[in-house]
Design goal:
Blueprint lengths: L1 E6 L17 H14 L15 H21 L6 E4 L3 H8 L5 H18 L4 E7 L3 H13 L3 E8 L2 E7 H14 L3 E4 L12 H11 L11 E2 L6 E2 L2 H10 L7 H10 L2 E6 L5 H7 L6 E4 L4 H13 L1
Parallel strand pairs: 1-2, 1-9, 9-10
Antiparallel strand pairs: 3-5, 3-6, 4-5, 7-8
Helix pairs in contact: 1-2, 2-3, 2-4, 4-7, 5-6, 7-8
């Protein structure tokens, strides 16, 4: 049975998250390397004040997931495939061996900075659960015509996120609740990710990626916008850039990896957002976040490797 590593996107951050990292030499080594590359003290990245910044959030999550991945790798725990949600895709690219950590970190920093500058205020994201895809797209039709609201992520059969203007977000969430949504609320995200409002950022990232050296991946990378198991570096670059301004099809990504034999999904995250989604899909698969215990993840990987 195959094992997949999952890297989180914005929304999985929380204050004090660096304190949750396992006490491991490769964790400390990664944190120090990140400081050397960024030329800044990252110890405050996980404070409540600092996590109000999109750039800091994306950097903190990327560094967190890479620190844990390196700890696992040093002990012989490696995945058969990797996927990353939103900015987590850069972590997945590193795990596949296609992108070096030293090259990925500045790209993540630029990504966050460009997104903040593109729409510094008046925009955000919301989450809706309990509606079908058809119900969501029907509700969104009017807003998309007005170019004020967009479908950002399809995370599960009944969980979606939306991006757009703050005033319109409130109106849409009220409409979704009236339609029967179990949950319809704002997310703690200050930029309208994964929609056409970020087209210029995608274009900047496309250019930036051409200046970085990529290697042939040793395991598949899952595309965010076109759920495919990618082993082609040019297609990986396209996905890393395009996903900033296109809908993330995460639900399809997980189905894809299930079809390819993945049965254990390890979430390299301070929270259990992605693994919770996995565990709701089928009793045949298991998702666990490192936030539930580093040693527990190691034990499960040993068991699944023997199956």
């Amino acid at each position: 049975m195959s094992i997949a590593f999952l890297c989180p996107g914005q929304g999985s951050q929380q204050p004090g998250m660096f304190e949750q990292l396992p006490d491991h030499p490769y964790v400390q080594k990664t944190l120090q390397e990140a400081e050397d590359i960024l030329q800044t003290d990252i110890s405050l990245f996980d404070t409540k004040a600092q996590l109000q910044s999109t750039t800091t959030v994306q950097l903190a999550l990327f560094i967190w997931s890479m620190a844990v991945y390196r700890a696992f790798k040093s002990e012989g725990y490696t995945p058969d495939m990797a996927a990353g949600h939103s900015v987590g895709a850069f972590g997945a690219a590193v795990i596949t061996g296609a992108l070096a950590f030293r090259d990925a970190l500045p790209l993540v920093q630029k990504r966050g900075e460009w997104m903040e500058k593109q729409h510094p205020s008046g925009y955000g994201m919301g989450v809706v659960t309990g509606l079908s895809y058809r119900q969501m797209t029907t509700l969104l039709e009017e807003y998309e015509r007005d170019e004020t609201m967009y479908l950002a992520n399809v995370n599960a059969d009944d969980q979606f996120t939306i991006s757009g203007e703050v005033s319109t977000l409130e109106s849409f969430l009220t409409a979704a609740a009236a339609e029967g949504a179990r949950k319809a609320e704002r997310l703690n995200v200050a930029v309208p990710s994964h929609c056409v409002l970020m087209k210029e950022v995608s274009e900047k990232m496309e250019s930036a990626l051409q200046t970085v050296s990529f290697s042939s991946p040793t395991i598949p990378y899952a595309g965010n916008t076109k759920p495919r198991a990618l082993l082609n570096t040019e297609k990986m670059k396209d996905d890393l850039a395009e996903s900033i301004s296109h809908t993330v099809r995460w639900n399809e990504v997980m189905h894809l990896y299930y079809e390819r034999g993945a049965r254990l999904f390890i979430e390299l995250s301070p929270q259990a957002v992605l693994s919770d989604l996995i565990n709701k899909q089928s009793s045949e698969i298991r998702g666990i976040s490192v936030s539930h215990g580093y040693e527990d993840c190691c034990l499960l990987m040993e068991r699944y490797s023997l199956k």
